[in-house]
Amino acid sequence: MGSKKRSSADLSSEDVEKNSHTDSFTKKKNKKSKRDKMNADDDTDAAPPGVASSGKNMELHKKRKASDKERKRAAALENDDGEPKPPVAVLVSDSNSDAAAASSSSLPELPLSYFRDLASPEASVREAAASSLVTRLQEIQKQYEVLPDKESVDGGLMLEAEKNDGLDNCAPHLRYALRRLIRGVSSSRECARQGFALGLTLPVSLISSISVESLLKLISDSLPVSSSMKGQDVKECLLGRLFAYGALARSGRLVEDWKADKDSQIIKEFTNALIGLAAKKRYLQEPAVHTLLDFVEKLPAEAVVTHVMEAPELHKWFEQATEVGNPDALLLALKLHEKISVDHPVFAKLLPVPFTSGKFFSADHLSAIGDCLKESTFCQPRVHSLWSVIRDMLLPESVVQSEDVSSVPSSSKKQKRNRKSNPVEEEATNNIRSFCEIFMEGTLLSSSHDRKHLAFDILLLLLPKLPASFVQHFLSFKFVQCLMDILSTKDSWLHKVATHFLTELMDWVKDDDSKRVAVTMALQKHSEGKFDNITRTKTVKDLAADFETEDGCTLFLQNLMNLFVDEQHVPEEPSSMKWALEPSSLNSDQSQTTDDNSEIGSNEEKDSVGTTGNSDVLKSWVIESLPGVLKHAKLSPEAKLRVQKQILKFLAVQGLFVASLGTEVTSFELQEKFKWPKTATPTALCKMCIEQLQLLLSNSQKIENPLPKESGLEQPEDPVSYFMKFLSTLQSIPSVSLFRSLNEADEKAVKELQETESKLLKEERNCGLSADANKYHALRHLVVQLLLQILLHPGEFSEAASELSVCCDKAFSSSPDLLKSDGEAEADGEEEPAVMDVLVDTLLSLLPHSSAPMRSSIEQVFKYFCQDVTNDGLLRMLRVIKKDLKPARHQEDQDSEDLDDDEDLLAIEEEEEEEEENEEIGETGESDDPTDDSETVTGVAVDREVPENSDDSDDSEEEDDEGMDDDAMFRMDTYLAQIFKEKRNQAGGETAQSQLVLFKLRVLSLLEIYLHENQGNPQVMTVYVNLAQALVNPSTAESSQQLLQRIWGIIQKKIFKAKELFKDESIELPALASLLEKNLKLAAKPFKSKKSGVDPSKKKQTAAWNRHKMIANLAQNSTYWVLKVIDSRKFSEIELEKVLDVFRNVLVGYFDSKKSQIKVDFLEEVFRRRPWITHQLFGFLVEKSVDPKVEYRRVEALELISEALRSLVPISKETQEESKKKMKSHLVQLSHLIKELVANMPEKQARRAKVRKFCGRVFRMVSSLKLTKSLLNGLGTEGQTACETALGDLFMNLKNTDD
Fold first, then answer.
1. pTM of the model
2. Which residues, in sequence order, are CB contacts of 979 under 8 Å at separation 6+?
3. d(Cα 694, Cα 684) in Å, to the nearest integer?
4. Which one of 629, 782, 810, 1132 is most buried, by most CB atoms within 10 A?
5. What pLDDT, on a 0 to 100 scale, did the predictor assign at position 474?
């Protein structure tokens, strides 16, 4: 009993011993106050020091002393908690002290330190003390037995070892030690129970003089229980008895005595005593049963039957067990039956007769012992020991081991049949099913929180041994519903319990795919596919993402497929049927159709829950989970292809086809059986299957790694070709048809696409590893995606499919250039449109309503063909970006004359009338002009010079339109016509606008690919101009900020920061200069606010201001980029004068008009990057600064002049003379500027500081170049006087400098 767990009650701690002196005994707590009071009385009655006490005081003192002595002796006798007693030689009376000393001197002493060490918290100390104690007791007993006069010793030492206790043959020391050890096991101090129980076990086991019958009586006498005792005291005594009985059972003396005398009643008495003790309190039942079971393990079966089973208390206990609900009695009955293997009558109410596991877990018997099982919740949070026994009965080792063997995939069907017919497994399955339905669901889950807690504990106890095939029984509908209810409410009392259970469940399935599949299926099946949504966890998502092997993926896929077609009997392992080789010909397939009555498997094998079929929500989860199986799997390309085929076939069968007869079709050509749900699959689920099929094919294109062809076998190398052949094979089966009927146009388009894919496959294989193979491969993917799109949305893509087929047919010609027009004229004499233009139009027509996988295929095709895109095709794409649903503002009748593209690069036209009207705007930015609706959308007045709405832009569009015939225009605008139609049909046109924005974003993705693949192409300038026009168009910002940011990002990353600068010698310098001028004007445009009384919201003001900053940023970066292009062309100085004229006009506008908002920092950066501009314009810049129309511009331009001066006149020894010449040529202009600055010093301190800083910089440069006299002469007398007044010491230091 030394290893038993201590009681959980808060027991008071009392000392076992302290020292060996008689006057040092510790009193109990209930006597401490009385003792303190008497001590206080002693202090009161005592005489003062140095004064003789009276006779009365002396008499009282003697009485108190005698009273204290009697009280101490009584306390020593009544002490039941192991307190130390004085040595036997000291406890005898004074008259017999000499005799006692003489008698006891012949026996060894018994050190009391042994008893103190028995209560130590250190196990090693307790063991050493017990060993020393039993050794000393053996020595004392041995010497006692050889004493000639034992009575003389016993007579003087009876205080602690009373006579008539049955231990007459024991030495007084031994009898004292036994009593003290019995009292010690009732102490709750530290580890006294364990230590004193060990100390009691060893002497009883090794000293044969101790009578077991007498010891049993001594235990009950030493630890009595009465009605007058307090509850805590009763508990101490009862626990002491339990530990004492445990020590006696472990000593082995009971077994030895029975072997010596089989008619002895000691075992029966011990059983009665132990069961009687267990019957007193519930918390004593389980440890008492374990004590008895430990004892029974040492007994032969004969002794158990004739003695233990015949104990009257045991009969009574078993008789009342089912009435009161005693789980410990059931535990004892099960273990005793296991020991004796006999159906004893005493088990009649607890165990079935005859006893079998099947009868034990039958519905009737579980109902009979239900109270015993339910009441095991009293020991929570600990799980009762009964459940470990029931676990071993539910899951015998033979079943667990056979399940472990069966978890390994077996190719032998005979072995599988033999394993399934195993009677042991069948009985275990029936037992578990009955236990779960009758007890778990019928009793625990429908009861209190404690019993629901017990249900979770039972399953956690079973998990380590639970085979995967039994998971479906425990994770039943009611259990999963209970788990979801608890997890969905965080305030639930059982929320932590359920969370812990879920964590342990996830750890349990971590390394076993079959268990992971079983748990995933159970959770989703009984939650209608909404376990994660309801519980707000990622349990199912994490479970489905952990399949990393091919076997695991295959097992998961088969369970998902069976769940979809409503097969309730889930296979225990993946099917051993191997995938058939692809048919060499796709002729009519010989197939067999099976009706509903021919399903494989009996009704008994199917779960009774959910026989009406799974919900559409659950089936949708199955469909969505299929393509994600491969996401985290670490498979070889061959294994990945095999898994892809399984998914592909299932999605194709369930999404594209239906069986006209029955629910099963067997294809002899493919050597496979295909099954559909009993209830017709809704169209929505069929569409979902097609969408997932598209996603699967798209993902395979991204990670595709073609497999080498095996010799002698014609195998598809990718999922696309496999799907197309599989599709053709199913179409040839008479009893299989498409899930929806197609019109004539769609049927024709499907056939054309199938033929086209077949041709493309042949061409791809003929190309080998050439670049054209990638083009054919991308086209094949697009063909398949378009075919599925036709089935998904009939009547919408047949025309695009025909055009795509025509484009692909051009790829089969002998022309070396793929998809190039052959140049042959049509029958009517008109030139045939370029095939690439038709392909671009087709791709654009597919973009608006295409799915994500189809857009991915479109982008792949465009990536491989974008280098062949013509100028017309590119302009059509750009035209979509610039398209606006709103009518153009200020639209007027235009002349039919063509406009030069160079004059409309950014569509910015500065009208003279607007210049004059806005002249007085200045820094206020206000205008008296009323604004129309389009100008007030963002809350600010938008400039009329917008790209899309300018007259030139409209003419350009008309020019583009005139260059196409009616058929071409209809083909090109098909995707836009539908959007405009929706705008007319819907109020406000919000849906149409959002669709147009989405269409533009998709076209921008194609343009980004084009710019990435054609960085040096001359058409980059065309893309830049059109994107810039779209960016500055106010309707772009009004429609979508995302679109605005997307355009700006493409321009910045793919054009301005491209690694390679485009090269186009056809663009003349005047066109570049015009573009530069328009960008500079755009950078100088002010931010205009509305003057009317409308108060725009803060959000609109912020959006307008952000757009203005973006446009200014575009203009500045465009200026840097255009100048970079100009520098790369190596123009002559005469030609570059046009560029200089542009900057001169900008400087004139800056100094002469408040309207110009061009930033000085921007011009400084231009001068720093292009020094040749600085050198040519320095004199003009200084000249305009001397006499500006706007005075404050003079001071603002000082930083610009300083930057130009640093670039123009570098100060170094190598360039000293050259710099001096340049500086001297501009010294007169600088002198005039300084004179104007000091003569008109600004009032603001900051501006005055700028002037002083500029003058100081000029003075230092002049002084270093030794041109001081020339500067002073240029300033003249008046200028020098003004400089002395305004600059002071700064100018005086210059005058004192010697040249």
1. 0.71
2. 848, 885, 992, 995, 996, 999
3. 15
4. 782
5. 93
